[in-house]
Amino acid sequence: MATEHLSPALHAPASSRPYAKARPGYGKRTATGQRAPRADDFALMPERERYVAGYVDRLPDGAAMDIKSLAKSLPLYGQMAVSSALKALGVAGHLRRVRCLAGEGEQVRWVSRTYWSRTARDNEWWDTFLATEGSHSTPEAPPTDAESHVAAPTSSLRATATPTTTPEPTAPPTPPAPAPASPAMPKQRTSVTPAVAASPAYLALAQLGRRDTRLALSAADCRTLEPLAASWFARGVDADYLTQALTAGLPAQVGSPVGLVRRRLTDKLPPHVASSSPAPATTVAPKRRLLAECTECGRPGAPEALPDGLCRPCRTTPPEVPAAPPAERDVHALVGQLRDLTRLP
Questions:
Q1: Phi and psi for 125 in degrees, rounded to 5?
Q2: Rounded CA gap, 293 and 97, in Å?
Q3: Count of CB atoms within 10 A of residue 98's CB?
Q4: Would you call 52 exposed, middle or buried from its count of C-beta atoms within 10 A (0-12, 13-18, 19+)?
Q5: In angstroms, what CA-CA distances link 166 with 38, 163, 176?
Q6: How would residue 107 be classed by pLDDT, with cut points 50, 70 and 90?
Q7: Beta 27-30 vs 95-104: how paired, if at all?
Q8: Residues 60-79, mean pLDDT to the nearest whole number
Q9: Residue-wise DSSP of 58-84
Q10: CB 209 within 8 A of CB 215
Q11: pLDDT tens, residue by residue, 293-304
Q12: Are 236 and 242 in contact (CB under 8 A)?
């Protein structure tokens, strides 16, 4: 039967040396609803777990939470011991590892975080908390390595006049003749045509030649056939459907690609299909995904699929049981059996 340890949390190494800081977007995150620290925090846990929990609890947000960094800061335990302690803390309800998207625009990447709770929470609380974090979490802008400072110029040009002495007054100098004005250069006439975004119908027709060289159309052909192709899109089809309908069953040689495409656009025009549900008025932005991560092996999954912060294989793996010592053998009985064997004819 397990013995409860009622001693308070052990004192982790003093914060004289700086803690390992995680990369931007990674590291420790403190869960909401934390109570103030107390002397009996983690008192019911074994000594190793109390030691690791006391150190992690004092780390600020953004500190490194990977096993290697923690083992460097905790001199009493190695990486295997720290890994086992973090697994136990996850089962006890103090931490959960997650993966989430961070960044803006095209600079989006998956990052790993560890949410820490000084108060032990059950699986239902963690599922609700992680679902809330994934729904309203805001992306983090990628940080810059160094701030750019623009220094204002501190030097200015100072004009100094050199005094000249004249022995006697002279006549005022004759002003120089004005320079002949250079003939004005006529402005070059440029006709700038504003770029107009091509319609989906035009783009689908332009891609036919790349799909099948027998249907290579010119730009003029695409503009001519654009209204016919647009009527297909108005009936609810997409570019793949249109391309498949125009390129299916082509003859070996096509003398007039524009004529063949015009004929197929007219003859194969799809019917109107009434939409079963009206299109939404507003487009809902996709939610940021937040995946839980197994504390033992790092396998990602939905928070509700990882109770106690562990995936199914890590939960079902039986704990290592030390092998029992071999039973003592009866030496006298063994000698008697050997004597009986020697007496046999």
A1: -65, -45
A2: 5
A3: 22
A4: buried
A5: 92, 10, 22
A6: confident
A7: unpaired
A8: 91
A9: HSPTTB--SHHHHHHH-TT--HHHHHH
A10: yes
A11: 898 888 888 888
A12: no
Closest CA to 69 of 23, 105, 117, 31: 23
Residues 239, 204 contacting (CB under 8 angstroms): yes
What token pair was written down for 146?
């160094």
pTM for the predicted model, two decimal places: 0.47
CA gap 126, 120 in Å, rounded:
10
Cβ atoms of 97 and 316 closer than 8 Å = no
Predicted confidence band of residue 92 (pLDDT cuts 50, 70, 90): very high
In order, the DSSP letters of 227-252 are: HHHHHHHHTT--HHHHHHHHHTT--S
Q: Which of 240, 219, 238 is nearest to 230 (CA)?
A: 238
CA-nearest of 97, 94, 93, 91 to 56 is 94
pLDDT-based confidence at residue 211 (cuts at 50, 70, 90): confident
Helical pair 239-247 and 257-267, crossing angle rounded to 10 deg: 120
Q: Compute the residue count for the chain.
A: 345
The pair of structure tokens assigned to 83 is 């890994």
- pLDDT of residue 17 exceeding 60: no
What is the share, in percent, of the chain residues with pLDDT greater than 90?
22
pLDDT in tens, 242-253: 888 888 888 888
3 Cβ contact partners less than 8 Å away, ≥ 6 residues apart: none
Residue 110: pLDDT over 90: no
Helices and strands, number each (H, E), in the chain: 11, 5
The answer to whether the beta carbons of residues 94 and 53 sit under 8 Å apart is: yes
